[in-house]
Amino acid sequence: MDNFQSSIIYITATILSLLFCGFILHLLTKKFLSKHGKKRYHPIGGTIFNQLINFHRLHHYMTDLASKYKTYRLISPFRNEIYTSDPVNVEYILKTNFDNYGKGWYNYSILKDLLGEGIFTVDGDKWREQRKLSSHEFSTRVLRDFSSVVFRKNAVKFAHILSEAVKSNEIVDIQDLFMKATLDSIFKVAFGVELDSMCGSNEEGKKFIHVFDDASAMTLWRYVDILWKIKRSLNIGSEAKLKEYLRTIDAFVYKLIQRKTEQMSKPEADLSLQWKKEDILSRFLQIAGTDPKYLRDIILNFIIAGKDTTAATLSWFVYVLCKYPHVQEKVAQEIKEATAEKEDGTDITNFAANVSQDALEKMQYLHAALTETLRLYPAVPVDAKICFSDDTLPDGFSVNKGDMVSYQPYAMGRMKFIWGDDAEEYKPERWLDGDGFFRPDNPFKFTAFQAGPRICLGKEFAYRQMKIFSAVLLRYFVFKLSDDKKTVNYRTMINLHIDGGLHVRVFHR
């Protein structure tokens, strides 16, 4: 989205929202106090237009509030918005009283244009159906073996691109490369398609990436822009742009579905069923039929789960390795020892082939370093649920039917009452026991993968991809920030991308 256009849209929306919210808030405060005087409600941290004003630093703003209140609420014209960083409340929302907290109509209405009826937007039977099918796929050895081959292949391709950058002394936007690499991986694993966006041979795929990222940012903007429905009906501003992006996204995805459907309908496809078992889309086509809209929604949900989350985490991982070079060297040494490599001149392709499951399991410090990255830079920084009926959280405060209740992985990772006085310090050792083995923590305090019935199905899938890429890249390269004085910040969108990319210099190890 063009920066100038964005500024105009944001300023206009802010002014209109402030005027509207000021009037509505005055009325609601009176109504709220008279109606709910006997119930206990969480302290007020601010209003929804405080979020609007702080949108560019939204997670900093919410972390500041979380440091004052474990749980607080923001007043909006239509509902309370409760935000919690209390692990006890999080466990109650995600597990103990799971059925009372879901996506609900509010989240669905915001997300449906981009993600449709996918697993991240629906509740009830639709969610259970997709969860069951997806769970089966992620638990199969076929997918594990197939995906590992794909990850190794793309990691090697990534390494060759970096080698060329070293030769030409070129500064690399490594986040952009990770986005392309993970997109290539998820398209091959989930849909059986060679996108090859990393090497730039697929211009259509390259355009899809940028449009999808911008559509994601505009979708998140709806949470703080109370006028988005009016803009959509009038087809103006950010909503007009989003509509344009969605047309590009849909055209790309429907073409993909058509190709796969045609491939599976060919008579020769019946001669061998093995290829059908390798990609997830084929599984859905066999079981769920060929409704293009349903498949489109599934695909986009897989993309946002399989591309953005892993690529963003790997980008932040390289960032912290640049900030903590001793960690970078320690990870590199462990990789060398875990793969039992004897010669420094081992070919990249041969080395990648030897990054086996056994070797990955020996990389305990790497696993801890990636987990510590996710603690401070969770791929999904905040996750919202809707309360379906009046309730009382474990902290004793009330929640009303229709309230939005969110837990905050980004803020939680920085809370001293959860992680101690060194909460804001990057410290992989906090995840290791006395013998140097990885020690998982309470999933309701480390919420990067959610927890309870909706816990991320692709958790092990993501770790495997991140560890394979890390092993190949850190074995052969040293990373340094191109400008260590430049502030690195996030872009406020559904996933925690680095704003403007991560520009690094790469050196042979």
From TrEMBL:
Listed transmembrane segments: 6-29
Pfam families: p450
Cofactor(s) needed for function: heme
Keywords annotated in UniProt: Iron, Membrane, Metal-binding, Oxidoreductase, Transmembrane, Transmembrane helix
InterPro entries assigned: Cyt_P450 (IPR001128), Cyt_P450_E_grp-I (IPR002401), Cyt_P450_sf (IPR036396)
Signal peptide segment: none
SUPFAM superfamilies linked: Cytochrome P450 (SSF48264)
Highest taxon, organism lineage: Eukaryota
Family: Belongs to the cytochrome P450 family.
Protein name: Cytochrome P450 704C1-like
